[in-house]
Amino acid sequence: MATSQAALAAAASLCHAGAARQLTTRDPDELKAWLQLACAPGVGPVTVRLLLTAFGLPQQILAQSVAALSSVVPKKHARAVLARPGTGLPALVERTLAWLGTPGNHVVTFGDDAYPARLFDLPDPPPLLYIKGDPALLARPAVAIVGARGATEQGKRDAQAFGRALSESGLAVVSGLALGVDAAAHAGGLQGCGGTVAVTGTGADRVYPAENLALAHEVAARGAIVTEFPLGMQGLPANFPRRNRIIAALARGVLVVEAAARSGSLITARLAADLGREVFAVPGSIHAPLSAGCHLLIRQGAKLVERVEDVLEEINLLPAPARPAAARVPASVPEQPDLSDFAGHADPLLAALGYDPVTLDALCERSGQPPEAVAARLLELELAGHAERLPGNVFRRLG
């Protein structure tokens, strides 16, 4: 996916942002106070933010009485904060300090300059973040790309193409390191100067899903992995909706590429809209289940996106052009491919196979060929990357 020269010129300076700012202290006592506050049972980010606003840093909070803290938060939360730490806290502190001893690992808190200011738009910003990679990327202007884990091949191609084009425009690409659209978006983001940020639902010392282990290493080396969950945290189902709010907050806008009508990606889009971020959606076939969520978002006011300039215009990185009647071919939508088979002759089945999903019976009727011939040729087209089989035994052409 190519961006226009105007887009590149408008955003070129974003690729040369300043060096990372001062990070969190690695002082054991201060780190212990932050972890005790953040890990207090039943105490969430909203309570932590109230206490920090009222009393200052965690060591000052922990020096207060229950009565003093109860003037700001409920007494049960005050007692939980000041309760004697369990035996697990010293082990967590030791483990975190050891993790910080590895180059590229950071803990960033409310008290650090490197804490991303956009997270303060959340009602419940995480009090501390674990980061593998470059913390400066979290301050870079960004667009999130999210979508289906079980994305189609075309959906993954679109996600990677948009990720690359946005990154080439100087924007960081934010996603959730899941299979499908997320992984493709990160791969695209790594191809440009904007880089990519993966927000995870596990501890920073774990990778979920395991299939993305190699990708996670690459993102940590050339981008950033960020999480609010302490080291050792497994990928629990409740963690991922919480992860989504950070994805939404870090970005100027969220682009949804393939999503079912009931999808976690729609939660991320809603959170983005609630925060005043832009919401974008890539349309698809009216017959494709993984387009239903995108179409729902468009009906609700999301901007329909066909090319990267549609995103750049909306977030004011590219002046809105006067579009001529004969618009350019969208960057994310393939041009008409050559309708030829491997011998170079016209292929009537490929010509009959459109970008909308179609059944085997319909293809037989369109092409005038018997089912066994159509099925054999479809297999050849799948292996060559010209077609894909979708759930329900329907097929569509790929660019």
Describe this structure in words.
This protein has 399 residues and is an alpha/beta fold. The chain has 3 domains: 5-13 and 135-314, 3-Layer(aba) Sandwich (Rossmann fold), CATH 3.40.50; 27-96, DNA polymerase, domain 1, CATH 1.10.150; 348-397, Orthogonal Bundle (Arc Repressor Mutant, subunit A). The chain is 40% helix and 13% strand. The protein has 17 helices and 12 strands. The strands form 2 sheets. A 9-stranded mixed sheet has the order 1-2-6-5-4-3-7-8-9, sandwiched between helices. The chain has a 3-stranded antiparallel sheet with strand order 10-12-11. α12 links the parallel β7 (253-257) and β8 (278-282). α8 (153-168) packs parallel to α9 (181-189). The longest helix has 16 residues, at 153-168. It is elongated, with a radius of gyration of 24 Å.
Biggest sheet features = 9 strands, mixed
| Terminal residue distance | 13 Å
Shape: elongated
Count of discrete alpha- or pi-helical segments spanning 4 or more residues: 17
Instruction: State the secondary-structure class.
Output: alpha/beta
The number of domains is 3
Query: Secondary-structure element order, as H and E?
Result: HHHHHHHEEEHEHEHEHEHEHEHHEHHEE
The number of E-state strands comes to: 12
Mean pLDDT: 84
Low-confidence parts:
1-22, 319-345
Note the beta-strand portion. 5-15%
Query: Helicity level, as a percent range?
Result: 25-40%
